[in-house]
Amino acid sequence: MAWSTSAASAAHGAAASHFIFLVLLLTSLACRSHSAPPEALVTNVPGFAGVQLPSKHYAGYVTVDERHGRRLFYYLVESERDPAQDPVVLWLNGGPGCSSFDGFVYEHGPFNFESGGSAGSLPKLHLNPYSWSKVSSVIYLDSPAGVGLSYSKNVSDYSTGDLRTAADTHTFLLNWFQLYPEFLKNPFYIAGESYAGIYVPTLSHEVVKGIDGGVKPTINFKGYMVGNGVCDIVFDGNALVPFAHGMALISEDIYKEANTACQGNYWNGSSGKCEEAISKVYMEVEALNVYDILEPCYHAPNSKVIPLNSGTPQRFKDLGGTSNPLPVRTRMLRQAWPLRAPVRDGHVPSWKELGVASRVPCMSDEVATAWLNNDSVRSAIHAEPVSSIGPWVLCTNLNFSHDAGSMIIYHKNLTSQGYRAFIYSGDHDMRVPYTGTEAWTASLGYEVIDLWRPWFVNEQVAGYTQGYEHGLTFATIKGAGHTVPEYKPEESLVFYSRWLDDSKL
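The structure corresponding to this sequence follows.
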């Protein structure tokens, strides 16, 4: 049967429409697969002699304040497994004021860095078999402005605090996802360590507030993780004495004296007897590496010794007093956290303000400094040159205020809304002892649904964990210090990947 002219025209029109739809669809898919800004692609990584990177790397700036010229620097490492489906994780180091290139260079980034052999020479880069990019795409962000490679054209921006940092980082994320819309459907997590115990929950709060308020683009936020993170002045401030006692760093007599004199309130004791007892505790532990009591303490040759009559608290006296340097790599944390209360409301003092040389005892960061202040590296990762924004330092002495208060209410609000939280501690970190972290997680009052038990890597106990309702998990990592991924890279990849995949440790 012959078609009518009108039927033939209709059929032709339908076929043409279908063809146009297919062309548009394929074009859209093609654009989506290449929607990352091409100018941000890192095509050359100085110091890496390998033939090919295992995944794509992107780096550059995102402006968070046009008027002030406030720009935050990021480095994205795409997942080596399945970047189209795997989670996207924002990583934040602490300080406050420390660059997230600490995590990139020393902890869980795509490379292991080897010294170039002489001062200032370009380090050699080797692929890291335990990089977190094995199972996720990771964004390493220098935040706030003034930290690492991030900067502002208005120097007033270098006076900041928790709340503005969270707001700026939320703006960064909204603008970043506009540049990389292909990741909008991926599960998104926020992670960090140390003072990022403040950064992570405050930023998570901003993200959730934006989602609830219909802010576009809509971020597919699923949860967050905090490693050795500060949280609350009371819980963290009272953590050291029980930790020191449990680790056999102080005697039973010293512990009983402190416990009786301070009645469990070690961070803010009101009596002279309490102060005297706490001083004895500090004297016993002050020669240890506060970031990992198992590791030797590196002392730079020019470490400054504080005069005994300086008025500086006893725990800061005689820092670096040795002529036997031990070349142990950890980090420089330039913001000073007194052992008694790691984070107090108001201005966060620097070591310099306390009369101590800028280099914190036990710490060195030569390899990262040599790499990130190399002109070819700056050019390759699309960062402003040293001549423009100055040299990269691991931790910057910002004028920073802790103005967000205790994080307990943040954790309670986020987890009660169904956002997953993973809180982990290296069990030999004395900077933020696990005793305080374990106590505040329990204080949320959630029902325990996975009793305290060991977790394993290669049939060996790697730590201990306890699971609560509302997706809250607390875990310790055996034999690890303040920067777990650095001390325990294989174990850290295991717990990280298992948690992201929502499987048991």
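The chain has 15 helices and 15 strands.
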